[in-house]
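Box 3.1 A note on notation
Throughout this textbook, protein chains are presented in two layers. The first layer is the amino acid sequence; the second is a token string describing backbone geometry. Keep the layers aligned when reading.
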Amino acid sequence: MVNYIEPIYNPDNFFRKAKAEGIGFIVPVAIVVISAVIATINAYITADEIARITVEIINNKFAPDPGAMYQTIYISTIAGSFITPIIGWVILSGFAQGLSALFGGEGSFSQTLKFTAFSFYPGIILSPISIKIALDYELLLRTYGVQALLSKPFVQTQILIGIITILWQLFIWMFAIKHARNLSLKKSFIVAAMPLLIYIALIAMSSNRF
């Protein structure tokens, strides 16, 4: 029987066993849903202030009904935070499936979906930190309003936690692709590193604003 905690510290051995013994979708889906719930909690903490500030910025110019705009932003912020991890899981798995095929990868898409779901573990484990950051951010928004969005220390902290999370995810994802798609470690690293490079490019562009 596979140890579902093992991907955190020994993903290579876990995915080797999981491939040999076979696993269902219950645990992978549960991991992704838990990650989505955590993202929703983080969004809920800051959604009210973000919606309020956004309406204040746009009000009297493009918002004939501030109340309706507030509700739209508030609901979409929370709902989007739940949906995004689930959609992201499917998209990234499809990306891995397609790119790994260029390297001669073989294996079903369902296997790729199951294995890549475990790359959400780091976000779950680091969730106490992300929730604390969200609480601090909410306080900044409530105290300083729109100026909080320009808080350099806060943005830098977010970027740091994001880098730590994605590097840990890369470690897990690399072995997930290796075993799901029957690739060498080198090729699976290349496939897994592509989203990381995209993420680094995005945060580099973001950090240049501060």
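The chain is about 80% helix and 0% strand. The CA atoms of residues 36 and 84 lie 8 Å apart.
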